[in-house]
Design goal:
- The chain is 34% helix and 24% strand.
- It is α+β, with helices and mostly antiparallel strands and 485 residues long.
- The strands form seven sheets. A six-stranded mixed β-sheet has the order 15-14-18-19-21-20, with helices on one face.
- It starts with a helix and ends with a strand.
- The protein has four domains: 155 residues, Methyltransferase, Cobalt-precorrin-4 Transmethylase, Domain 2; 73 residues, no CATH class; 167 residues, Heat Shock Protein 90 (2-Layer Sandwich); 79 residues, Orthogonal Bundle (Arc Repressor Mutant, subunit A).
Length: 485
């Protein structure tokens, strides 16, 4: 922050009413525990009052608002062997951005903590959330009306509109965001001057202007277009991790890579890296031999894009993960789905992050209509792979693609899942499943049609498919549709 901006900020704040809940005044050092609690309280209060930041200030007399100076030097203080700033950051959940600015006004030392407002959940210090009530710091749980108001506020505010980097200048915007790749992705010419670039980024709500040369970078802008995600502290854990294992379990890791760029600017590189880790199979067609990857690239693209788009950013400490085993690939994202996994194929997608989803679809990174899962299933069938499995844990969603497996190696659940997904895929294409289509899907010889009939019976018993109303008496030629049709 420039000296003139620092002075302007302090003079503005000293002119506010004394009961301002998002500003706290101190003269000299207070315990690190108290500072952490104030950061929590001021962050939550700033969110509740719709402010771009909360402020904790040293060197100002509380009763008179006169500048009296301070001996507190936060950048040289330590707590439990760590720098104070780093220690405070590690105790906050979720980790929020706060800037420490030390300056001199009227020849006296003044210290300013500029604190990011809470977003999506109250900010906790250690084991408790705090809030300001008038000029007092209180535990949030003791003021349920304020806690309810905060959660109501969080429910209304999309993740993408939150602030990833507050109050940065145009130089920081240009360095933190890969703006050249942004213009390529949206198929727009790169402007020949800085202001036109900033104007376009503001129009797209990648950044929000605060003053003449000060901007907020939004969560949506940072998560999509960051040159380095690690530059945005609270988003750095949302980078995609790709882990390759030696074998079929997590005992031995061969290599691990964490993506460093925003989802949009790094997407093609991510998909290429995943593909490069996969084994190849040799296929012979029309007298020509060619190498193909184990899994269809279009399926990988759709499942990875879905993991990015549909994740719950409120689940802290974890991000999307791609794990590659010898016999399968697991793509995991934080958060449980908003629709039943059994309906992934036919129902329109619902996302917590609609702005993010719309922008990625606009850049052709995922399916425009539908969830793209029908495209995943279709290409997996073309590759004659086992049906993918969609699993939901307490706080995550997992999509599993299996490597090549002979029909005899599939268990009953594998076969039922394949039968159900095959019926769904045909139904959304205006067709119906029969014994014949299922035999073709699973590579069952025509003479073994009773085997396909057994799988169909098992899937009916599992209440995943039902006989079509127009089916005839013969099971060999009967038609079947999903249970929801």
């Amino acid at each position: 922050m420039k000296q003139e901006d620092f002075e302007s900020c302090i003079h503005y704040l000293t002119g506010l009413p004394k009961e301002t809940e998002w500003v706290e005044w101190k003269q000299n050092f207070v315990k690190p525990e108290d500072i952490g609690e104030y950061i929590s309280a001021l962050s939550n209060a700033a969110a509740l009052h719709g402010k771009n930041a909360g402020y904790l200030i040293w060197g100002i007399e509380d009763s008179t608002r006169k500048i009296v100076g301070t001996s507190f030097k936060p950048k040289t203080e330590k707590e439990k062997g760590q720098e104070l700033e780093n220690w405070l950051s590690t105790q906050l959940v979720p980790r929020i951005d706060f800037q420490i600015i030390e300056g001199v006004i009227e020849g006296l030392s003044v210290v300013l903590f500029q604190i990011q407002p809470a977003a999506y959940q109250p900010v906790r210090f250690k084991d408790a959330e705090f809030i300001r009530v008038g000029s007092y710091k209180k535990r949030l749980r003791d003021h349920p009306e304020k806690e309810r108001a905060l959660w109501t506020l969080f429910a209304k505010e999309p993740f993408e509109n939150g602030i990833a980097a507050p109050n940065v200048d145009s130089d920081a915007v240009i360095s933190l965001l890969d703006y050249t790749k942004y213009f390529r992705l949206v198929s727009a010419p790169l402007p020949d001057n800085r202001q036109a670039i900033l104007d376009k980024l503001m129009a797209e709500k990648v950044i929000v202007q605060r003053s003449a040369d000060r901007y907020d970078i939004t969560n949506g802008g940072a998560i999509l277009y960051a040159a380095k995600l690690e530059a945005f502290d609270r988003l750095s854990r949302k980078a995609v991790r790709v882990i390759i294992y030696d074998g079929v379990n997590r005992t031995k890791t061969k290599r691990e890579q964490t993506g460093g760029r925003g989802y949009a600017v790094g997407f093609e590189g991510l998909i290429k890296y995943i593909n490069d880790q996969l084994p190849q199979n040799e296929m012979i067609g029309q007298a020509l031999r060619r190498e193909v990857r184990t899994y269809p690239e279009i399926a990988i693209r759709e499942l990875v894009a879905n993991a990015l788009i549909h994740q719950d950013f409120n689940v802290t400490g974890t991000g999307p993960t791609v794990e590659i085993f010898d016999d399968r690939m697991e793509i995991t994202n934080p958060g449980t789905p908003l629709i039943d996994p059994l309906r992934f194929i036919d129902e329109p997608p619902r996302s917590r992050n609609e702005i993010l989803a719309a922008m990625m679809r606009r850049m052709n990174m995922c399916e425009e209509r539908g969830s793209g899962i029908d495209k995943v299933i279709s290409n997996i069938e073309i590759f004659q792979l086992p049906a993918p499995d969609f699993r939901v844990t307490a706080s995550h969603t997992v999509a599993v693609m299996f490597g090549p497996r002979e029909f005899g190696e599939m268990d009953k659940e594998d076969r039922i899942r394949a039968c159900y997904q095959h019926s769904c895929l045909l139904y959304v294409s205006g067709k119906t499943m029969t014994n014949t289509t299922l035999r073709k899907r699973l590579g069952i010889d025509d003479k073994n049609y009773p085997m396909a009939s057994r799988i169909i019976s098992d899937t009916i018993e599992a209440r995943l498919i039902k006989a079509h109303t127009q089916s005839g008496e013969s099971k060999r030629y009967a038609k079947y549709v999903p249970f929801w049709a």
